Amino acid sequence: MKTKFIFIIVLAFLLLPQGIEAQCAMCRAVLESEGNTSSAEGINNGIVYLMAIPYLLVAGVFYFVYKKMKA
Description:
Oligomer: single chain
Number of strands: 0
């Protein structure tokens, strides 16, 4: 019972959307001191794009492996 509850809690944390505005400390300090929100938004978008590419590649590999195993 307890393990099922812990599994549901962990699953909820993994599936709930969270703000993706993390940056390295130096980039964040420079962008916050500038006052230019468009460049900060651009940096955040770039981080999200860079983070998404490995997930897409891994998903593609799993898809092709699944198709090969199924055939």
